[in-house]
Every structure is written in C-alpha cells, then in structure tokens.
Amino acid sequence: MDDDEGWQWHPLLFYNSVNGVRVEAKTKQDKTSKSFECLTTSPVLCCVVLMGEKANPKVTLLPLIALIFYEVSGGPFGLEDSVRAGGGPLLSLLGFFFFPFFWSIPEALVTAELATTFPLNAGYVVWISSAFGSFWGFQAGFWKWFSGVMDNALYPVLFLDYITNSLPILYRIPSLFGITLSLTYLNYRGLHIVGFSAVFLALFSLSPFLILALLSIPQIRPRRWLLVDFSKVDWRRYFNTMFWNLNYWDKASTLAGEVENPSKTFPKALFGGLVLVISSYLIPLLAGTGALSSSPSEWVDGYFAQVGMLIGGSWLKLWIQVAAAMSNLGLFEAEMTSDAFQLQGMSKMGMLPALFASRSKYGTPTVSILLSATGVIFLSWMSFQEIIEFLNFLYAIGMLLEFAAFITLRLKKPNLYRPYSVPLGTFWATMLCLPPALLLILVMCLASLRTFFVSGAVILVGFILHPIMVQAKVKNWILFEAEPPPLHSTGWQQCHSLVSELTDQENKDVELLVSSSPFATAEEELSSMQTQFTLNSKDKCALLSEHLGLFDRVKTYVFQPLRLERCESFLSVLRAYAFQT
Q1: How far apart are the C-alpha atoms of 286 and 154, rounded to whole Å?
Q2: Burial status of residue 367 (CB atoms within 10 A of its CB: 0-12, 13-18, 19 or more)
Q3: What is the pTM of this model?
Q4: pLDDT digits over 323-338, tens only?
Q5: So where does this one cross the membrane (predicted)?
C-alpha cells in the first residue's frame, strides 16, 4: 500500500473520529468496499484508494499547449479572409496585433484563474453554476457545446477542400463520413494519444511557414503592409474572422480534470499557447503581404498555398497544402475532445444522464464523443461563413456569462481557494473584462437577421431542455450521476460544514456540500479557516496538516508545509465531492 501509482482516489464522508475508528469506502460501480484502521483524534476527511481501479493517463504541459493551440488557432489557415474583408493588409495586421490584448489575453487570464480554481471537466459550466446557479450553467454549457460542434463541422470539409477541389459529389459525401468516423475513433482511443498527436501535427503544420518567412525576407517591402482600401472593408466579415481566429481560449478548461497538476500546468500552457497562436498568425501574414503585391480580392481561403508557390516554388505550395489538411485534423481532434469532456463533466454534475459520464477502457467518454460526432455530421452541409457567424454569436453569449461569473465570484466568494489568481484587484479585474465584453456585444450586433433567428432557436431549445433534465432526474426516468449518498447507519455524516466541525460551532450548513449546486463551498470554508485560526496566510499546507488528520496509514494525502501539490490534490478531491453530490 506504500506505492500509490495507478490508484484512483475517492472522496469519503466527514466524521468526528476517535481512536480506532474504521474508515469504509464504497463505490457505486461495483459496490466493493475497503476498510482501513484510522488512529487519530482529529476530524478526518479521507480520500481512500480503491484497489483494482487504475487512473487514466494525465495530460502534461506540452500536449496541453498543443491542444490549446488547436482549440484557438491551428495555424494561419483561415486568416486569409481577414485581408480581403479588411480591404488590404493593414487592418488584418493591426487586428492580429491588437486584438490579443483586448480579447485573447483577458480570456486566457480568466480561464487560468477559474480553471485552476475548479479543475473539473465541466469547465466554464462549473464557473457559471457557482456564480449564478445550475440553470445558467446548463444554458452556457449547451450554447458552447453547440457552438463547438458547429465549429467542428468545418474541419472535415476544409480537409477535403485542401486535398482536392475536383472530387465528385457522390464520392465527397462518403469521404466526409469516413474522415469524421476515423477522427472520432482516434478521439475514442485516449486523450493522451490526441495530445501527442496534436504536438506532432503542430510541428508539421507550422514548419513550412518558418521556411516561408525566411525565404520572403529579401522580397519584403514594408510599405505594402500599410495598404488599405476603406471602401472595400466588410466590417461584419472582418470582425467575425478576427474573432473566430482568436477565440476558444476557455475550451481547454473542459479538460481540467484530465490535466496533471492543473494549478501549475494551466497558466504555463495558456501562456505558451498565446505566444504560439499570435506568432503563427503574424509571421506568415507579415511574410505573405510584405513580399507580394497581391490584390486583397486574391486573399481567399487556401491562398497561403499560392503564396508559398510564388515565394518558394511548387514544393513549398505542396507542403503548405498538406500542412493545412493535417492542421484541420488537429483542429477537429482538439475541438471534439473538449466538447466530449464537457458533456462528461456536465453529467458528473448531474446536469445530464449518467450515460454521458461513462468511459471506455481508454478513459474517454464514449457516448459524449458519439453525440458530438453525430452533430458534426448533421451540420457539415452548412457554408463556411454561415457556420462562423452562427457559432460566434452563441459563443459570445456564453463568454459574456463567463466574464460575469468571474467578476461575481471575485465579489461574492473572495475566500475561494485560487491556486492561480489574476494579479489584479476586483476593480481592475472588472476593467480587464470590459474591452472583451464590448467586443462580444459588437460581434453580436453585427450579426445578420438569420443568425439572430438560428441562435434564438438554439437558446429556446436550451431553455426547454433544462427543465426536462430536472424532471427526468427527480422522477427517476433515467439514471443520473450526481445522487446524494445515503446516510450511514452507524453515524456517518454527509460532509458537514468544515468550519463548524473544526471550530466546534453550531453546524448550520449541513446540506451545503450535499445539495446539487453548492459549488466551491468547501474551498471557501477552507480558506476562511485561515482567519478563524489566525495562522500565517501563506502556509495553507501547514494549516490543513494541523487541523485535518490525514495520514498515510489510510492512504490519505498528507499536508506538510511547502508541499503545495498535495494540498491542491486534496482540494481537487474536495471539489469533486461537492459537485458529484
């Protein structure tokens, strides 16, 4: 029992223990139990290991950077339209230089703080539920999932477009099915495979643009970067193209439960992804627009292949075409992964039936993957610009809720344990969210009437679907994951308020951690103990070590000063218990 590699930890119940208390753990899946002797006089919150249940491989830093890169970008493929819509290179270059400051950086910072505070697969659904309740959490999850599926419907089509433009319609449709099913199977085989595949695809897809940039240097004329014809600017298309190429930073949060040491890994991965995305846009764009005197009307999807031909020759054109096709595979894999794990996380929260939380032997949510793949197939008939406008509108509504949740949690739950916190006070954090919020509103205002109707229909479906799910859970029409465990007959309590247990105060919040939406209560109470015990605020691990009897004899996490990873592991388990019950 000394080696905990490969074991799966499960939260237990909270009990005022005395010497010789026997700790028992049970799982819903197989009803097996394991017992351990616990010799302590302190309150114990045990996280006991169950034999025979192997932990799934975790995503590390480099694969996470690659997944974030493909969630947001995938390379310069698709940004050509920004030159055309902007009436020349100037607005496109300015957009990709300044938009990250107004949009990408704020979204990435908010994601870093909230994803490490709530390292669960539901991601932004958890944030919004914690701030505004499960109804709005469900709505945001539905909008963002639908937006993600629409986005993913683009990539098999774009893959075929880059490979050939002459495939007959009778063969094109089966090809779309075949590509979608093949990529879905790769997603089913495991997140670690998808992650390392994304690393390889990113290296392969970006390599020709490094060559392009080097070859273009002798031909670059900086004055070409300043060209713009304002009479030909299509502002709606311009803003939608910019927004589409720089959004989805929050999607990685739906993988938070699968990331190794998320409190340290997420901020680093988001920073690395930010540098990679901006570089992958600006370097090829500066090279292509500075070295060639192309008309803005020539900059259509796939034009970078022609740029490669004019600068480097046919070999570079072919390399860029193949890289573009492969990049679409990476985009598909990253998007489907986040969409599927979001549904899995929502199921764990009790918002969706338990079947969406079921995992394959590879640790992947099979039913969630199949549902996302089905949506991709049904939506693949839509045009490129239609999909971009529709998904941007739904995504914008969800992001407004996320920014509002970020500010609300700062105001209402200041004591939340935040492993990473945006280094700004509440006022300046609000100011940080203001520019991207205004940009979101602008994108929505520029939408066509058709987009309003389609998005309105999706929103209406979400409003109807939530009460149906609630009734299905209440009336037991179908099994849901988040069922409160029964009280143990020998006096076990259902995770009573930590503060009242530790300070011998009246326990007034017995249901806080067993209701369906007490999100972050446990972390808030743990943080508030610092004030009640007047201990050093920077020594959280020592606090937990002293006041929670967590001993290696029962395979619990031991909290010692400066062992932050253990502290964060414990808090992650505590969060998981709050959400699962």
Answers
A1: 26
A2: buried
A3: 0.71
A4: 988 888 888 888 888 8
A5: 86-105, 125-146, 193-215, 269-291, 362-384, 390-409, 421-443, 449-470
